[in-house]
Each structure stands twice: as structure tokens, then as C-alpha cells.
Write a sequence for this structure.
């Protein structure tokens, strides 16, 4: 019976089921200070695609024929560490295994009474931190400004938009279905949304819903959508580059409109954001997110897929935009 | 006899002589607080190309059939303002006219005993301020880092490189002739130079001379050169977008490598720089530049063309890289 998922091939273009391999590996027993845990919720994220490439990046690539890993919430089955006891729940980066022995470094205890366990992979996990810190540290939003978010119905995007509203900005989201747009404006309180799949001229459409231009662009997608935004940035605009899902699967080097002339003309800033650079601000950000969540000022959407065997497909589905909000696999 | 140069056409692509028109206009007499001045040195700059387009930018476009203007050093012939007297020299934005009546707003008195008059259009003018403030405010150079400068033999680029050396960085310049490269490494103290016109593979060439990667890229050119730099930026790199001369003359929207994936991967920053946004720092920057100039720590190169009638051609020659350092027309 398979209990582990390995990286079988480095994907060419869009990942496929055959890039993954299910195998049976021995679980082992916990040594000193270690835990035996059982995975309960597994996060699948677009950034994992980058780690499947054999190239230097901000985190090392996955090794071929070794287990893939991502953020996971797991239940402690056995503990040799005084700070954790059987029955506790923990979150952290773990292998795609049903059960595993882990060290407790970089592990957080999570409380199922404060929020559903899956929330610790989303709005209370790296997703929420990414939204909060990317928006505040690079976007520097000011009341009354216009915030445009791409991938707006995604896990990060939907939180970014809500934070923008809490801070008093006009918030517009770009997403890929009418259902998602409806979700943005109803559940998440965005002021307007643009369905890029049914819009012929994105440049024109953005101009219409952002008549005062765009002050902060929170970019989760890259590609042609982001090219269209350039025509509408205001003087001193801040562009947070949080992801580029539109180009993650490209095998050649993606091209686009040269951004430099736009940035000069508008004295604008564009900066790549990686949440791990801001670890010193995690605590403060988490506290703020929990507070707003408990005050019902933040909402979130999850797409929960069931079954260990469906982890690869859930990951692949990200690139077809099949998720609304955070994509999670429940075991 | 012609004494004024008008914008005759908005250039398509590279400007041509026929885009300019020489006419005779009445000079007039100075009113209250005004001066009658005679142009002595006229600055021609790549950014003027942008003002020849009929589009909103950080400064309004030139009007068709009206005089073009740029930075000029002029001699006061008549003064109705107590702060200026006949024989004084002033610098500021003035029309391309041999003589003109001007108000004294935004005019600086310049001292021919402290530095040659032409220097006030270059290293002690907006050129020097652009280099100093662009490098410091966005580039945030740190001792021991690697600074790469494109358009390095140009007016701004040559100052940027020298400032980098004063601040203890490794400095590499990209320019378009062996003569310019020689100038960079001899006169301006750059550590190395790359002649992009004789280099087939810029990506490889940059990797060779910047084995530790690029921490600060001061970009005066845009286009393919800047695309090649992306492959070598370090984590937390800062890219100062100061100009994009490679694309100023393009009539369609220029394309290039999508920068977003590089910026994410390296948590890098790219920001458009316009010197006028930093007017509150001009005084401090000027004092520092004068000091280093007097201490012989800064050197500059000028290409001085003679004759009012040669102003348009001098401007056009910028786009063929015919200048070394600041391009100036002496009247």
C-alpha cells in the first residue's frame, strides 16, 4: 500500500500525473526529541512547481525520486519531545507521506478550537502571511488608493483584497470565471471584478473599473494580464510580484511587454516578494490575522479534495484554476 | 536669420533633421523681474525624445510648432531683477533660442570660477544629480557589492560608476565601443567593461565579469542588454531604471523577457527613477558632487559640438551613441 509520493520526473510544461510516483516506504520510529505524525491536511501550492525545476532559487529544488514536501497539518501519534504530546496538532513543512517521523524544528502547534485545522494552511498559514506582508511591506497601501489584485479568487488574492478593504482602499480583482467574480464582490467585499476569460481587451477593461488608475498592483499571475495593468499604473505605483503562475509552466523564457519604460514614466516600483524574507514579522502579522478572523472581518474559501491518492491531481488542477481559494487535500 | 528651433513634427522612430525647424522669432525686452539672456551651452538629452511624443508623462510633451527647451547655461545681458546682474551666468530650463527673455523662477546662478560652465549641464547639473540620487536612493549601494552600469560611458553612467568606486563597490560598465570601454577603465576607474557591440552572448559575458552576481544594476538603456542582466541578479538586487534609450525610438510597444519571475526568484527590486522627485535632496547631493570634483575624485567627459545650427543633429547623434559623456552644444 503506497504511503509516499515521490517526484518521478521534472515536469516539462504543465505537470502530469506521470511526474509523480506512489511508493511504499518504511515509516520508522521517532528518536530523541522526534515525533511520529499522521498527515491530516496537505497544502498544494503553485510555488511547488518552481521547486520541481533543477535550478537554484530561493529554496532548493526537490530531488528526483525523493518525496515532495509542502505545508501540512498533522496529528501527533507518538512524541519523544516534552513540548508536544500525543493528540496535538502541528503544522509545518513535511513530506507527502501518510505518516512520518519528524524533528520539531520549524514546527508550530495549532489549535483546532481557535480555527478549523485547514485554516492553518491558508489564512492563518503562509497564505495569510504572504497576503498581509506582501501587501503591507511592498504595496504600502494608503486609504483611498486603488488596489488591483490578480489571481484574486485564489488563496492569497482573496485575502489581499479583504485586507485592502479593511485598510480603506478601492479594491478590484481579476479572476477567471463569473462564479469567482461573484465570490469576490459578495463574500470578499471587493468593489469590482474582471473575468479575464470573457474579456477581449483587458487594457480597456482595467481602465473602466479603475478610472483613477492603479496605485498598488498585487500580482499573483504575471503574463498578459500583468502587461495590461502597466498601462494604468499611477505615479509612484507599487507592484508586488508575488507569483507568476501564468508562466510557471513555460518551458522557454517567457516574454512580455518591457516594463522599464512604464516604471520610469511613473516612478513606479516593482518588487519580488517571498514570505520567508519577512520571518521576523510573522508573529505580529499572525496576531493581526487571527484578530480580524475572529472579528469576522476576514473570510476565506477552500477547495478541499479528499484522499492521499489525489494530491498530485489537486496540484495539477491549480494550473487550470480549478480551485476557489486555498487548495487543500484532506486525508 | 534663424534664432529659434521649433518642433516641426513628432518624430516617428529615430528623430530626423526634418522634425526640427529653424525660424526667426522676435526676442522682446525683459519686464519686471525678468532677464534677457544669451545661450552659451545647450544640453541635449535622451529624455527629450519622450517629450516629443504627444502623451502624458512625468513632464508635459513639447507642443508642435513651439520652441523645444532643455537645460541651458546662459549669460545675462540685461537684468530687471536685483538678484542677477549683467554678466552673470545662469542655468535652467530654457528654450532653444539664441537669446530670450526669461523669468528667474527655477534659475540657478552658476560660477565659472568653480568649474567650467559646461559642467553645470553635466556633472554639476541634472546629470550628476541623477547619478548620485538614483544610485543612492534606489540602488542603496553597499561596500563590496557589485554594481553594473549600462550606458556606462554616457553622461549619467560614467558618474554612477565613479560614485560606485568611491563607495567601495566592484564596478562593471557596458558600453558600445572599445574606445568607450578603454575610457571606463582608465579615466573613470571602472573595474571592467563589456563592449556589447562586439559581444555575441551578453548573458555569458556578464557572468564572466560579474562572477559574484550583480547587486545593483543601474540601467540607462533597457532592451536586450537589460534582459541579459536579469540572469545574473543576486538575492535582494536593486535595479535602478533610469532610462531606456534602446526603446525610446520604438513606435510599437517594446517587448522583452518577462522580468517578474526573476524578481520573485531573487526578491529583487526594480524602480523607475526620475530626478525631479528628489528635489529636496538636490542641495546635499550638489555639495557632495562639488566636493568630490574639487578633490579630483570625479572626472567627466564631454562631447562638445559647436554652433546653434547643430543642436538638432547633436540630439539625433545621441541615439547612435556618438557622444562620450555629456553631449553639449556650445554657441
Amino acid at each position: 500500500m503506497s504511503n509516499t509520493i515521490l517526484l518521478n520526473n521534472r515536469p516539462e510544461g504543465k505537470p502530469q500525473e506521470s511526474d509523480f510516483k506512489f511508493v511504499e516506504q518504511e515509516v520508522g520510529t521517532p528518536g530523541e526529541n522526534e515525533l511520529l505524525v499522521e498527515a491530516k491536511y496537505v497544502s498544494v501550492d503553485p510555488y511547488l512547481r518552481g521547486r520541481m525545476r533543477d535550478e537554484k532559487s530561493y529554496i532548493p529544488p526537490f530531488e528526483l525520486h525523493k518525496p515532495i514536501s509542502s505545508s501540512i497539518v498533522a496529528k501527533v501519534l507518538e512524541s519523544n519531545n516534552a513540548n508536544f504530546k500525543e493528540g496535538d496538532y502541528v503544522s509545518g513543512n513535511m513530506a507527502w507521506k501518510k505518516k512520518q517521523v519528524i524533528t520539531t524544528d520549524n514546527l508550530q502547534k495549532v489549535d483546532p478550537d481557535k480555527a478549523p485545522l485547514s485554516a492553518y494552511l491558508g489564512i492563518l498559514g503562509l497564505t495569510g502571511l504572504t497576503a498581509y506582508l506582501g501587501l503591507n511591506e511592498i504595496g504600502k497601501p494608503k486609504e483611498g488608493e486603488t488596489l488591483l489584485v490578480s489571481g484574486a479568487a485564489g488563496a492569497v488574492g482573496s485575502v489581499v483584497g479583504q485586507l485592502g478593504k479593511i485598510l480603506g482602499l478601492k479594491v478590484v480583482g481579476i479572476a477567471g470565471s463569473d462564479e469567482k467574480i461573484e465570490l469576490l464582490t459578495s463574500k470578499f467585499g471587493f468593489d469590482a471584478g474582471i473575468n479575464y476569460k470573457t474579456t477581449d481587451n483587458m487594457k480597456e477593461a482595467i481602465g473602466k473599473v479603475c478610472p483613477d488608475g492603479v496605485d498598488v498592483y498585487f500580482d499573483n499571475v504575471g503574463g498578459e494580464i500583468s502587461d495590461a495593468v502597466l498601462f494604468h499604473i499611477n505615479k509612484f505605483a507599487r507592484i508586488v510580484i508575488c507569483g507568476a503562475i501564468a508562466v510557471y509552466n513555460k518551458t522557454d523564457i517567457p516574454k512580455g511587454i518591457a516594463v522599464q519604460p512604464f516604471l520610469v514614466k511613473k516612478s513606479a516600483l516593482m518588487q519580488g516578494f517571498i514570505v520567508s524574507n519577512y520571518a521576523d514579522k510573522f508573529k505580529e502579522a499572525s496576531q493581526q490575522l487571527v484578530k480580524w478572523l475572529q472579528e469576522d472581518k476576514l473570510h476565506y474559501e477552500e477547495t478541499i479534495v479528499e484522499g492521499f491518492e489525489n494530491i498530485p491531481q489537486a496540484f495539477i488542477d491549480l494550473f487550470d484554476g480549478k480551485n476557489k481559494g486555498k487548495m487543500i487535500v484532506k486525508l
Chain A touches chain B through 37 residues (CB under 8 Å). The longest helix of chain A spans residues 126-139. The radius of gyration of chain A is 20 Å. Chain A is about 25% helix and 25% strand.
